[in-house]
Write the structure tokens for this entry.
Amino acid sequence: MAKQGFFSSVLSGIRERYEQSLLEDIKKDPLPRHVAVIMDGNRRFARQLNVSSDKGHLLGKERLEEFLDWAYDIGIKIVTVYAFSTENFKRDSSEIEYLMNLYANSFNDLVRDERITKNRIRVRLIGKTELLPEAVRLAASRAEEYTKNFDKYLLNVAIAYGGREEILDAIKSISKEVKKGTLNPEDIDEKLIERYLYTGEIDDPDLVIRTSGEERISNFLLWQSAYSELYFTDVYWPDITKLDLLKAVRDYQKRQRRYGK
């Protein structure tokens, strides 16, 4: 046991030194301003540990809190996380109920979290919010109201979110304006459409990270990620580390973003 502890300590030390070295390299080059994350793998991580799916989701929530600390410490200004898709409503009702309670409690906790106030993090819920239980909507509304004037960082939480649904909703809203005569069809351009998206006119994500080894974006930020860099990692979301985030950012920095040029 003593030998095992010694080797664990050595490995931890090596990892910390590598992490610090990578962090120093990252700060030499431009950082992604907006990072979007598909937090995938909670249930598979739970099965791996032989614990309940609920426990996996709780561990995922706790890891998100750490991830946000890492991201903001690095200097990433906007984080958008994919917490629950419109398709996820097809899951077992007991799992959905647990998740909704977890989301409501999480939004309530944000108001009491001193890190939110200290770091001036604005919080926003995006998605088809009318599909959510009242408790989630009210808790999110309180968090949004409490943080509405914070301007250093932004956290978008996508719940009951679907990229296609977002675009359809934008089209419907624009169509109503055209029908009322308050908008000329000739004035419809990309900037106008962006104003009607759930995300509004914030910067598009520079980098989209997906955990768990799946290599698709699963209806997430379809419009906004048109020119985003995509990064896939095999680790399950509750097992992601600061080193994984640093590797993703470093990989992003090595790419050349041409935007079709």
Summary: The chain has a mean pLDDT of 94. The longest helix spans residues 2-26.
